Amino acid sequence: MTRTAAPSTQPPEPEGPRQVSKFEFALLRVLRFLVGHFPADQGLQLVRQAATRPECLSPGAVDLVKDTLAKASVLFLAKAGGWRNDKYLRDNQPLPGRVWDRIPLDECTLEFSRPVLDFLLWLTAEKVQETKLAWDAAPKALTPADELFFALAFDQTRADPDVTAVLRRKDAFARNPLCWLLAPGDLVDPDAAKVTVPSFETHCTGQRAVILECLQTFLTTRWIRSERAKGQIGDWKKMRQLGNAEFAALQAFLKACEAARRTDLARFVLRTNAAILQSDMTPIFWTGGLQGSGPPRLADRLDTQRSALAVPRQMEILEAWNDRARMVGYFDEDYQSSQLWKLDWEAANGERVSERARAALEMLEPLRGPATPTGNAGGANASAADSSS
Amino acid sequence: MSRAYRITVKESETRHLKAGDEICTDIEILEILPPEDMATLLREELKKRGFDEQDDGTLVRKDGEITVKVDPCTGEVSVKAETEATVNQEAKREASGYNDVGPNEKALRERTKEQLKQDLDKKFDNEQSKLQNKATEALEKHLQELQPEISEVVNQVTRDALKQKAQQMGTIKEISEDAESGSLTIKVEV
């Protein structure tokens, strides 16, 4: 549909503003809202309203849609972290620079396809919360740019629970890995027994990986905010759903990163933990807002509390990565990538963060604690073996 | 002339109610010896404390309504509380009607029966909830008692493992244990 790279010959710009119909004007405002360039309250109002859909869009409106998508997506990625002079792995070698320095232009050209425009038409024409027209997009047909757009759209509409409830049932969002990294808690169906997370394999290679590189800072900020907000959650069921969704999403993501040897893409998980665990924490930080005594079963209460600490629980995997990185020798294939991970680990004070995460998690476990000294059996908590020759 | 009548429906039901609660956690065993040797030490220590070995290799001890199950290979512990009771509940409902207006007697009786059934279900739900609370309270109480015992088991296994490790390193010259501080000193000649 549209490519963000500048075409060789630009059509001449018309003089003055382009003429669009009322529907097209609404569609363009919805689009600008979805990419974060239009006030959310007004945008959501447009999403909740219905409008008569025309047979087709005028060429001028299509051009404006293309232009908005091209500029807004690139601007978002650059602002989200693409501008940073960072190091990321490319062919298993760390490559420094800003995203446009690291990646050749033809590899970071964003291509949007038909489902994006169909979604915009549907969103503008229908009252989303009462829609009768079933719109959806097959996840396999989506390009990396489409996935980014749908993730941004889902993120923008999260403020409205009715709209979120409709969108989360659609494959374009429910099976979009980026949505799961941005807002896992909002993608879970409250009535679903099990959390089903899409595969992150495709997001550790090619253009999708480049998008993730750009999103590292954005994701870190987002997850830190989410972790800090957990202390305000009073509903046990909500906390459990959020925690289970986060845990499932992060586990699947870290597994994919490890398989693709792209541990650098999991920096945001490490940095989020480092920002949260700056001092010794107790589980109260996460669970302190829970109201009342909770579910009657102890098993459910414990599960909710464990779920709340879904992010610190990932430190176990990151620590294992670090242990493995330390074993990689100078002549090994993964030496450079291991060195990069060790740098990240040290910068985040990984050892200390990992200890703090472990301590917070242990506080939740019911059978951990000191033994009461009894008779001659004693409570040996520390033992030592001295050897003399 | 309309005549008023009153229907009284009474019903009693007996149900067998079951409630349970279970937590799963793991105990932290230091890898002083190879995992299989640590598992053997844990198994022996648990057997001394009344645990029975099952066909699948796990060790189980039943304390009344509480079942404690330990997998010595993984260190996974599950503590389960189960209660059951046979409960009898009675409910009674009255309804008034007129023979010429409103629903007929059969319909009124059906409706009252339906309401009675709902009353009974509510009573059984209350009983179920009480039984659940009882199971959870029993589990919580038992966990408090079990926690020091499990810690003792872990410490004992650690001590035994250290002694075995010291034996592997050389000749043990002296072992001193301080029950107060919990320290264990082993002098080995290598």
Q: Helices, strands, pairings?
A:
The complex is a heterodimer of chains A (389) and B (190).
Chain A: E1 2-3, H1 22-34, H2 40-48, H3 59-82, E2 86-90, E3 93-97, H4 99-102, E4 111-112, H5 114-125, H6 144-157, H7 161-167, H8 171-174, H9 177-182, H10 184-187, H11 206-229, H12 236-259, H13 267-276, H14 284-287, H15 298-308, H16 315-327, H17 335-347, H18 350-362, E5 382-388
Antiparallel strand pairs in A: 1-4, 2-3
Helix pairs in contact in A: 1-2, 1-3, 1-5, 3-11, 11-13, 12-15, 16-17
Chain B: E1 4-26, H1 35-48, E2 52-53, E3 59-63, E4 66-71, E5 76-98, H2 105-169, E6 171-178, E7 183-189
Antiparallel strand pairs in B: 1-5, 2-3, 3-4, 4-5, 6-7
Summarize the structure.
Chain A is mainly alpha-helical and 389 residues long. Chain A has helices at residues 22-34, 40-48, 59-82, 99-102, 114-125, 144-157, 161-167, 171-174, 177-182, 184-187, 206-229, 236-259, 267-276, 284-287, 298-308, 315-327, 335-347, 350-362, and strands at 2-3, 86-90, 93-97, 111-112, 382-388. Helix content of chain B is 42%, strand content 39%.
Note down, in words, how this protein is organized:
The complex is a heterodimer of chains A (389) and B (190). With 389 residues, chain A is mostly helical. Chain A has 2 domains: 20-175, no CATH class; 212-365, no CATH class. Chain A has 18 helices and 5 strands. In chain A, strands 1-4 form a two-stranded antiparallel sheet. In chain A, β2 and β3 form a beta hairpin. The longest helix of chain A has 24 residues, at 59-82. Chain A is globular, with a radius of gyration of 24 Å. Mean pLDDT of chain A is 90; it is low at 372-389. Chain B is α+β, with helices and mostly antiparallel strands and 190 residues long. Chain B has one domain (4-189). Helix content of chain B is 42%, strand content 39%. Chain B has helices at residues 35-48, 105-169; strands at residues 4-26, 52-53, 59-63, 66-71, 76-98, 171-178, 183-189. A 5-stranded antiparallel sheet of chain B has the order 1-5-4-3-2. A two-stranded antiparallel sheet of chain B has the order 6-7. In chain B, α1 packs across α2. β5 of chain A pairs parallel with β7 (183-189) of chain B, so a sheet runs across the interface.
